[in-house]
Amino acid sequence: MSPAPPPRTPLSFAAVDLGASSGRVMVGTAGPGVLELREAHRFPNRPVRAGGTLYWDVLGLYRGVLDGLRKAGRAAPRGRLASVGVDSWAVDHGLLDASGALLGNPVHYRDGRTAGAAERAAAVLPPEELYAATGLQYQPFNTLHQLVAARGTPALEAARRLLLVPDLISYWLTGEAGTELTNASTTQLVDPRTGDWARPVAKAFGIDLSLFPPLRRPGDPAGELLGEVLEECGLDGPVPVTAVGSHDTASAVAGVPAESGRAFAYIATGTWSLAGVELEAPVLTEESRVANFTNELGVDGTVRYLRNIMGLWLLQECLRSWEAEGLAPELEALLREAAKAPALRSVVDAGDPAFLAPGRMPARIAEACRRTGQPVPRDPAETVRCVLDSLALAHRRAVADAQRLSGREVEVVHIVGGGARNELLCRLTADACGLPVVAGPAEAAAFGNVLVQARAAGAVRGDLAALRSLLRATRPLRHHEPMGDQAAWRRAEAAVCG
Fold first, then answer.
1. 354: exposed, middle or buried (C-beta count within 10 Å: 0-12, 13-18, 19+)?
2. Strand partners for 309
3. Which of 188, 222, 475, 487 has the lowest tally of Cβ within 10 angstroms?
4. CA 436 to chain CA mean position, Å
5. Residue whose C-alpha is closest to residue 445's, from 23, 131, 82, 3
């Protein structure tokens, strides 16, 4: 039986895209040769510290989602949404009781409760065995470590369901529970070779996998908006919810406008920089583990082989510190001054866990420079230049290591996400990597989200390369050619790495 023909007119889709600092609901319109995206609603994501614990305000986020869907319905042509998809950051989760009620606000991955959990996990299963089974990089906040830290707590004891953040939002929208695979692959409980649970790992840690609802893959149906949601948002039903790459990086990598047949690296930039290559199979070698590369699952069975870098969090925290001190410098002016500052005067390790926690970021950067015998930044502009040089250097190291460890040589680097708007960062990354950089789209996660929905609805067709071809044909992109002295970047790398 031949597939149904695509609809005569493009369809509209709502992409719920929740980031670590803000959430947004975007309306995407897609059809043959058509791909458009516009923002319906943006809202802050402000964590809350209470009783010594840092939480996500998940109910506030859900309110933002509902407000966004209401505006999305008004913004969609003919007021009709063909589907809704939800993506967010990874690893964090909500625990539900037997009635489906949330047992407490999800704990933020930057909270200190996982201190020592990795060491306790290593006593159960050596890191090399855990990596060989799950392919996941070491991060102190991996879901596995969160569960180790939560063992014996009343909430975990009472829990009958564990839903990762985007699955929790989808559950509240539809009443149907599922575990989307790209996000599940960040829990350190999935075997990237099979795309199924790593049951021996779960057994070793005494984790009951029945806590997790059945796995879904991008493009699978995830229910329909509940009647109460339709009424709240003023939408005409039925409106299906479609599983997308619910880890926002999975959606962002699907939204990389790569040319078919041209080997590429990607850097998904935002609060984090996720830098790596797209593969068909995971790399589970001991050398890969020591280099702290992760094998996360992507759209259409791909593997996102990447390294986490602290990202624009460093800059965001500097701006917050200066604002608290009453300085409140304007970012665009700072970037202009930073572009004039001496290149590579001081660099820090942008992957250093010392920068993970919030607060005092300019002082901590100064301390790192002092500790490594480098000049301390003298003003905000020099601090910003240090941050951007350091991020470009970390991008260089990650792209080079990804090629070496995977055996996949690349011809171009794609920068997507919020950092694609930062022209200085993109130019420095091209110089550092010695490779052309293609910047954009900034809203790659929302585009990847919409494209998966649109394909599931039959509005567009084809494999991942075809989806990217549509993206490339409809979006403006900026190109940066490498310039400057590679020897200077090698010297800076030696200053950081020793």
1. middle
2. 273
3. 487
4. 23
5. 23
Helix intervals (H) in 374-463? 380-406, 423-433, 444-456
Residues 6+ apart with CB under 8 A from 93: 106, 143, 146, 162, 163, 164, 165, 168
Q: Evaluate if residue 498 carries a pLDDT over 80.
A: no
Task: State yes or no: pLDDT of 6 exceeds 70.
Answer: no
Contact by Cβ (8 Å): 178, 216: yes
SS3 sequence of 104-139: CCCECCCCHHHCCHHHHHHHHCCHHHHHHHHCCCCC
Q: What are phi and psi of 52, to 5 degrees?
A: 85, 5
Under 8 Å between Cβ of 318 and 331? no
Conformation bin of residue 487: beta by default, left when phi > 0, alpha when psi is -120 to 50: alpha
Each residue's pLDDT tens digit, 265-296: 999 999 899 999 999 999 999 999 999 999 99
User: Distance (Å, rounded) from C-alpha 70 to C-alpha 230?
Assistant: 9
Give 94's strand partners.
163
Q: How many CB atoms lie within 10 A of CB 392?
A: 28
C-alpha–C-alpha distance, residues 374 and 396, integer Å: 20
Q: Which helix (H) or strand (E) holds 35?
A: strand 34-44
Residue 8 has what pLDDT? Answer: 65
Mean pLDDT of 385-397: 98
Name beta bridge partners: 393: none
434: amino acid identity, one letter: G
Residue among 422, 432, 462 at smallest CA distance from 315: 422
377: DSSP letter:
P
Average pLDDT, the chain: 95
CA distance 407 to 404: 5
Q: Is residue 224 scored above 90 in pLDDT?
A: yes
Cβ neighbors of 59 (< 8 A, separation 6 or more) are: 105
Q: Under 8 Å CB-to-CB from 5, ≥6 apart: which residues?
A: none
Contact 90, 171 (CB under 8 A): no
Question: CB-based contacts of 274: which residues, under 8 Å, 6+ apart?
Answer: 249, 252, 266, 267, 268, 304, 306, 307, 308, 309, 311
Residue with tokens 């559950």: 171
Q: Is the pLDDT of residue 7 over 90?
A: no
Percent of the chain predicted with pLDDT > 70: 98
**Cβ atoms of residues 143 and 189 within 8 Å:** yes
pTM: 0.94
H or E stretch at 167: helix 165-174
Known catalytic residues are 248
Do 483 and 430 meet the contact criterion of CB atoms below 8 Å apart?
A: yes
Spatial distance between the Cα atoms of 117 and 368, rounded to a whole number of angstroms: 26
Report pLDDT for 29. 97
Exposure of 62 by Cβ count < 10 A (0-12 exposed, 13-18 middle, 19+ buried)?
Answer: middle
